[in-house]
Amino acid sequence: MRFFVVCPGGLEQALAQELASIANRPDSKALGTWVIDPTPTSPSGGIGLAAPISAAMALNLHSRIASRVLLQMAQAPYRQEDDLYKLASGLAWEDWFTSKQTLRVDVTAHRSPLKSLNFATLKIKDAIVDRLRDVTGDRPSIDTAFPDIRVQAHLTATQVTIYLDTSGEALFKRGWRDEKGDAPLKENLAAGILLITAWQPSQTLFDPMCGSGTFLIEAAQMALAIPPGAIRAGMYGDDAKPSRLAYRPLVTSAHGFGFQRLKPFNEPAEQKRWVELKEAALAQMLAMRKQYPTVESLGISGGDINEKLVSMFRGNWQRAQLPDQPIVRQIDALAAKPPVDTKEGVMLLNPPYGERLVIKGGRGQERNQATSIDEQEPENRFELNLETGRQSAKRSSRESLKKLQAQEEQDPKFVEFLRQFGQHLKDSFGGWNVYVLTADMALPGQLRIKESKRTPLFNGPLECRLFKFEMHSKRPS
Fold first, then answer.
1. How far apart are CA 79 and CA 98, in angstroms?
2. CB-based contacts of 405, cutoff 8 Å, min separation 6
3. Of 24, 53, 312, 403, which has the fewest Cβ atoms less than 10 A away?
4. pLDDT tens, 63-74?
5. Which has the closest alpha carbon to 434: 469, 474, 460?
6. DSSP 8-class letter at 108
7. 268-294: average pLDDT
């Protein structure tokens, strides 16, 4: 089977590394042969691979970076909307789901000659429901909010590819986040950034502006080998206790994954493989709990000046099934110090500056090629854009605009804070590697520190940079 694993823009190389790691797991190898496509040299929004159908279960359970796992159903040339109808109506949808299940269809495109992608979406939807009506005598209902089945189609200038979504809700919705604040950092982007930093569980990790704790929770789950899909997979059973601070979580084991609502995955052989995948993951989790028995042994800590966010972090930590309570303090980042007896480590932060919250233009001006039978979900509208490249001139223009916006919109007090924070890093964090995710391209100048590396990334529709700063230890006087 052919799959396309969707990821945030800029994380294609990190995803390729992760897919190789998942494919090399003994329980994954037992499923059959995996062949991962070469890593694209330009942004592609994901990585393709060939693998047994059972691989969908392993990918959804273990991929920290993926947004969705799409199973390719068909690919063919097209010239007009009727070609889409013909291709979709010729597929045996009745082998995958029933007319009693609800359906949603989404279409993305890059340089498609079609005038209306809404109409293209309707043609594909009609083809599917007509096929099921002809075969079963009944047609599925459409549900754009919480569908049982999601179908994706992508149009290039000449080719259409149709996919079944095996994930359901986007995979960055792990199930442990109790509440979303303004412009939250998506969990899969945080996991990808941790991979880019090459942080290892044996290293100290500190976030002085931790907010609701996304970086630190993702890191702790990595260290403890907790699969990102553990909550949805129901791996905690009755032992999963909600946080006392909890709001209703985004997803639970009741939501599960998209593949669990597809007929082939409910066959006894696939059900047995699913149980074996979860058992192997649980055994690894138990082994890592022995290696890191306490929160102190993890070496992961944070701080934030906002008391509400610190409380939210504690609730998220508990829901994520992590040990004890997190090591976190309500403290101004300018007063934060390295953990005791730590001479070097990794600092990772995403400063809560105003520009990332009020960036002009919004999603609609970022691109216009995505549509659906109803308004698409935010993660679909951007991350399922499979565009294979972006024009450098447009990118340069966007970056210039962002610089101007940052200058216009940032509070002078925050600019002064950044200057002081840069000096604080020099004074207190010598020997550390500091990584900062920001949409402010001028951040190094505001910190007055020269970056050693910058990595382009996207947080939803917002173009960002991950800056690396190598803080040199001060020479003894």
1. 30
2. 355, 359, 360
3. 24
4. 999 999 999 999
5. 469
6. E
7. 95
Confidence check: pLDDT of 86 > 60: yes
Residue 254 DSSP symbol: T
Q: Which long-range CB contacts under 8 A does 141-148 form with residues at least 24 apart? A: 141/102, 141/103, 142/102, 142/103, 142/104, 142/373, 143/102, 143/103, 143/104, 144/104, 144/372, 144/373, 144/374, 144/375, 146/102, 147/102, 147/103, 147/104, 148/97, 148/101, 148/102, 148/103, 148/261
Task: Dig out the tokens for 344 from the structure.
Answer: 């070097």
SS3 state of residue 18: helix
Structure tokens at 102: 């609800």
- Asked if 399 and 407 touch (Cβ cutoff 8 Å), the reply is no
Residue 381: the pLDDT is 38
Give the DSSP per-residue string, 448-474. T---SEEEEEEETTEEEEEEEEE-PPP
pLDDT band at 447 (very low <50, low <70, confident <90, very high): very high
**pLDDT for 120-169, tens place per residue?**
999 999 999 999 999 999 999 999 999 999 999 999 999 999 999 999 99
The overall longest dimension of the chain from CA atoms, in Å, is 85
Bridging pattern class, strands 68-77 and 346-349: unpaired
Location of structure tokens 């999601």: 150
Within 8 A by CB and 6+ apart from 108, the residues are: 152, 153, 154, 155, 369, 370, 380, 384, 385, 386
Neighbours of 33 (CB within 10 A): 10
Identity of the amino acid at 413: K
CA–CA distance, 439 with 459 (Å, rounded to integer): 9
